[in-house]
Design goal:
With about 550 residues, the protein is an alpha/beta fold. The protein is built from 20 helices and 22 strands. It is about 35% helix and about 20% strand. Strand 21 and strand 22 form a beta hairpin. Helix 7 packs antiparallel against helix 11 and helix 9 packs across helix 11. The chain is globular and about 65 Å long. Bound molecules: fe (ii) ion.
């Protein structure tokens, strides 16, 4: 059974191939087009996953699984537009044109000459399926939160013996995801992209200043909420998301992107994050009441909010968040939902392209005037890299298959020592050229994680934020200051040898030299770039930045 999964047209387009229930390959379109969060039809990603799976003729695919239901979505879009017929006339024409002329079936025929079966799985059902069916649980509560799917913005379901039963949903326009994106835009960041920045800014502010004002837009029933739409344009505009009334409510003007970030902006970020956490906690309580399970899985783009995710442990013994909880992962979710055979282990996030030593050597030989290359036996590679990191060098680490999902998990990463606070500033200002308040994250061997961090479960995909602790239970701000946020928290990645043997062995060597099997890990990209896919990109980015060393496979590369 060959399935081709696709998600597109909203956020993070992606494609995957699933063979008899096992994901063989998956990639986001942005990695090929170098357009961040590219939401166009993923022609490049589809071509890649087909070739990776050795499928020469796309019509060998048994079914294409599309991650949402276009007909139900059309129903929502038109019903919403009908509320303001004239105001939405242009958007309606544009939408209907693309509905009829750029449907999944039409595009598959146009780009790939595919004429076979296409299935549609609900947007939140695809999120839920990806989270639950890649989790280690047979039984779990499933909570999905995002901007909007067809109608749904939040769902709670029960996962039991590989079946998913929806128990509750909250519909558009009542959307926590859209509120987060709206305030992100209000604070002068790009919505659907700058949410991380707002989350990073929140600990610098006082949530009390704007909390009541923001909370006043909510009305609650026992399990659900509504959001007063008089402040927002979500139902008729896809550009500005708020009205002037919102500024009046907050008694604060929107920040322009080039304006300095002031204390009131930090306070608004703090209030938004606190509101999100409070509403999220209500949903967790509801999920706990509706599904009697010790486990919960989280899905939807909002499951990248690692600060809120950790609240899951207040109500559940075990929490799982997959490697690509936003729409990219739904390409896989739609396939796994439609696959009727036995569930396979799909916990591996390394699903993208890899490059052989021969390919890399050939590329490097063309740059011999600019670089020195040392080929090292594997053991020496880890020893040498650990030594260079210990000497405060910044190293770009390129190994094996590219990660699927927003995080670099040790195959396309920039690594540095977390022990010196100035390293954070150097990385932010010189390499990544981004806002100085944004934190970096640590990777740690799974078996030593609880020694340094308040953590009792493995978090292989870096999507839970926890406190850094020492053995006596005090926050250890000084041990890893470059990878600890201002409030003493870290977005930790635990690594074990089954998940990523090379990265694990490197951490072991780092531990021998520094006393802690911990390294700072940030994605291998420079300002506004997508994560590195190819050795060619890796070399170019290395040469145009202040990264000290580049490691590709077993080759240690320095500048001449
Ligand atoms: Fe979504």
């Amino acid at each position: 059974m060959i399935q081709l999964g696709i998600s597109a047209f909203y956020h993070d387009s992606a494609a995957c191939i699933v063979l008899d229930g096992k994901v063989i390959a998956a990639a986001e379109e942005e990695r090929f087009t170098e357009k961040k969060h590219d939401h166009s039809f993923p022609v490049n990603a589809i071509a890649y996953v087909l070739s990776e799976a050795g499928i020469q003729d796309i019509n060998e695919v048994n079914e294409v699984c599309w991650y949402e239901d276009p007909k139900v979505k059309k129903n929502r879009v038109l019903k919403t537009f009908n509320k303001r017929f004239f105001k939405t006339f242009r958007n309606r024409c544009r939408y209907l044109y693309s509905y009829y002329f750029n449907s999944p079936k039409t595009l598959l025929r146009k780009h790939f000459k595919y004429t076979g079966k296409v299935t549609h799985t609900g947007h939140h059902l695809s999120h839920a399926a990806f989270s639950y069916l890649t989790s280690p649980y047979k039984n779990a509560a499933i909570l999905t939160v995002d901007g909007v799917g067809e109608w749904e913005t939040i769902t709670i379901s029960k996962g039991s013996n590989d079946k998913i039963e929806k128990l509750l949903s909250i519909d558009f326009p009542n959307s926590l995801g859209m509120l987060y994106s709206t305030v992100t835009a209000y604070l002068g960041f790009k919505p659907n992209e700058g949410e991380y920045k707002v989350m990073g800014l929140a600990p610098f502010g006082d949530p009390k200043i704007y909390y009541d004002k923001l909370n006043s837009i909510f009305s609650h029933t026992s399990k659900k909420f509504t959001i007063d739409q008089k402040y927002f344009t979500w139902e008729y505009s896809d550009k500005v998301m708020y009205k002037y009334l919102f500024a009046e409510l907050l008694q604060l003007l929107p920040r322009l992107p080039e304006e300095p970030i002031k204390q009131e902006h930090k306070d608004l970020a703090a209030a938004l994050q606190r509101i999100y956490e409070d509403k999220f906690e209500r949903l967790l309580k509801t999920a706990k009441n509706l599904v009697k399970s010790p486990n919960i899985v989280l899905g939807g783009g909002c499951a990248y909010n690692g600060v809120a995710n950790v609240l899951g442990y207040k109500y559940f013994k075990s929490v799982y968040i997959p490697y690509a909880p936003s729409d990219a992962g739904s390409a896989i979710g739609a396939c796994l939902y439609n696959y009727k055979g036995e569930r396979k282990d799909n916990s591996n996030p390394y699903l993208g392209p890899e490059y052989s030593n021969d390919e890399v050597s050939f590329l490097l030989s063309q740059f011999s005037d600019k670089i020195n290359v040392k080929k090292l036996p594997e053991e020496q590679l880890f020893i040498q890299t650990a030594k260079l990191l210990n000497e405060q060098n910044i190293i770009a680490w390129f190994q094996g298959r590219m990660e699927f999902g927003a995080r670099a998990l040790g195959n396309r990463s920039i690594l540095a020592s977390p022990r010196d606070a100035s390293m954070r500033d150097k990385l932010n200002m010189v390499i990544k050229k981004r806002e100085g308040f944004r934190p970096f994250a640590p990777s740690v061997t799974a078996e030593t994680a609880s020694k340094w961090f308040n953590i009792n479960q493995s978090v292989p995909y870096m999507n839970i934020v926890v406190k850094a602790f020492d053995e006596d239970g005090f926050a250890r701000f000084t041990k890893f200051p470059a990878a600890t946020h201002v409030d003493g928290t870290c977005r930790v990645q635990t690594v074990n040898k089954h998940q990523n043997i090379k990265y694990y062995l490197l951490l072991k060597e780092i531990g021998k030299l520094s006393g802690a099997e911990v390294v700072l890990n940030t994605s291998f990209n420079l300002k506004d770039q997508t994560i590195t896919r190819t050795p060619n990109q890796a070399l170019k980015r290395f040469l145009e930045s202040d990264i000290d060393f580049l490691v590709i496979n077993n080759m240690l590369i320095s500048k001449k």
